[in-house]
Write a structure and sequence with these properties.
mainly alpha; 2 domains; 47% helix; flat
């Protein structure tokens, strides 16, 4: 899925004041910063880059960490699709 500057401007016309852009860098480390810089130059918007690996601070992620991140990311996107722009997400473990 791709999103152009035109798509972003259309979102802003709906009254939204912000957007979340998720980038999977894959084999191109640092690519996210280039995208943020392009958004700044072409769209004249402020953007902030948050790298998951810098946030987690716990060493290499395990398979469980990756599954949890995927599930929470999916839930976050679904919340946005459902029109919820303020939500708390958590995984509850009942024993």
């Amino acid at each position: 899925m791709t999103c152009s500057g035109q798509d972003y401007r259309r979102v802003l016309t709906t009254g939204k004041k912000s957007a979340i852009v998720v980038v999977a860098e894959g084999d191109h480390p640092g690519h996210t910063f280039a995208i943020a810089e392009e958004a700044k130059d072409k769209l004249k918007i402020e953007s902030r880059v948050c790298i998951l690996g810098h946030v987690q601070r716990g060493g290499s992620p395990t398979a469980r960490d990756r599954v949890l991140a995927s599930n929470l990311g999916s839930a976050a996107i679904q919340a946005l699709v459902d029109g919820k722009n303020v939500a708390w997400l958590a995984r509850l473990s009942v024993k």
